[in-house]
Amino acid sequence: MLTPKVIAAFSALTGHDPAGVWAAPGRINLIGEHTDYNDGFVLPFALPQAAYVAAAPRTDGRWRFRSVDLDETVELGQDELVPGSPGWHSYLAGVVWALRQAGHTVAGADVVLASDVPLGAGLSSSAAIECAVLAAFADLNGLGIEPLDRAKLARTAENAYVGAPTGLLDQAASTLCIADHALFLDCRDFASRQVPLAVTGAGLEILVVDTRTRHSHVDGEYAARRASCEEASRILGVPALRDVTDLDAALAHLPELIGRRVRHVVTENARVLESVAALDAGDYARLGELMTASHASMRDDYEITETSVDLAVATACDAGALGARMTGGGFGGCVLALVRAEQVDAVAASVTAAFAEASLGVPVTFLGRPSAGARRLS
Ligand code: ADP
Ligand code: MG
């Protein structure tokens, strides 16, 4: 809870109290990897970690952004809202820009930010700061913007202003999620539904293992996977791989490697739908099986895992997890393990020991309890 911290930092910067405090969380994807750009299904939930924003309007039409975490302050006027500007503050200036592009009037403001979403760990620290500041600007300017439209505006900030070509998953999760639920999101029409994910009530926890391994070739591999999916769609004559209904027939028309990529996407979409059904039925054992099957598919068919995440998943399952999988774009990052509450410490210790034995460094583990989306706190 960083509310006191942002309020104190705001007062130190401006000499007065903020008009309010807003927060928006990081997110993690329970299942449904590399399905988003195939018009498919994803199932993220919001993390307890969030970005907190204290803000108040200014009368001079300028925006001042301070990151307590980076100990940096940047001030901009209207003329300086230029897409493509480098730097962390672009994620925030981009929100102002996106709101104004959409025709909203946005008064100047002082904005102070602190976040406990780790940067660049694949937990979407960028969407957290965008969605928190968007909630702040919407309230300060009395803008009645629907939650899904808020998510779209935050994505516009990241795509068009920062210049990062991301889908809507991160911002939709950060904006729309509610506690003890996952967000079932259809990436074709952005229809969504809250699915119960009350793990603690079921005597379970979602253990997040940040392997702290990140590979520099991720962007190129991501582009290559996307290109394979687009090529497969062309060969198969479907708008997107979401539309493949007969996998065996499709595989008969595809080269071996592209066929395996397609098999991942098609089976992963099916696993998301099955996970939603399992959660609706409170069947966590089935969810665990689907998570582990998802990991195998990412490892063998989509080929986006590597040693550290494979080891974390195998060790967690051996130590008693109901299931485990890598989450996020791939080639490192975080693993999720569905674990009985009383086994959390033992599973975490097993993974840490296995990493030490394999000289993979010390992973960071924490509980991923499904939490609330963007909200005003005071
Ligand atoms: P991810 O969203 O997976 O954490 P990104 O590269 O998309 O990684 O976003 C990380 C960037 O977001 C950081 O490099 C920084 O520019 C910005 N950012 C995130 N959190 C903060 C923060 N607390 N203060 C300042 N900038 C932040
Ligand atoms: Mg991001």
Q: What topology emerges from the helices and strands here?
A:
Layout: H1 3-14, E1 20-29, E2 41-42, E3 44-57, E4 63-67, E5 72-76, H2 90-101, E6 109-115, H3 125-140, H4 147-162, H5 169-176, E7 181-186, E8 192-196, E9 204-214, H6 218-236, H7 247-252, H8 256-280, H9 284-300, H10 307-318, E10 323-327, E11 332-340, H11 344-357, E12 364-367, E13 375-376
Parallel strand pairs: 4-6
Antiparallel strand pairs: 1-3, 1-13, 2-7, 3-6, 4-5, 7-8, 9-11, 9-12, 10-11
Helix pairs in contact: 2-3, 2-4, 3-4, 3-5, 4-5, 6-8, 8-9, 10-11
Adenosine-5'-diphosphate binds next to strand 6 and helix 3.
Describe, in short, the structure shown.
The protein is an alpha+beta fold. Helix content is 42%, strand content 22%. The structure holds adenosine-5'-diphosphate and magnesium ion.
Can you give a write-up of this model?
The protein has 378 residues and is of the alpha+beta class. It has helices spanning 3-14, 90-101, 125-140, 147-162, 169-176, 218-236, 247-252, 256-280, 284-300, 307-318, 344-357, and strands spanning 20-29, 41-42, 44-57, 63-67, 72-76, 109-115, 181-186, 192-196, 204-214, 323-327, 332-340, 364-367, 375-376. The protein has a six-stranded mixed sheet, with helices on both faces. A hairpin with a 5-residue loop joins strand 7 (181-186) and strand 8 (192-196). It binds adenosine-5'-diphosphate (ADP) and magnesium ion. Residues 124, 126-127, 170 line the site of magnesium ion.
Question: What key phrases describe this protein's structure?
Answer:
globular; 2 domains; 378 residues; alpha+beta; binds magnesium ion; Ribosomal Protein S5, domain 2; binds adenosine-5'-diphosphate; Alpha-Beta Plaits; single chain
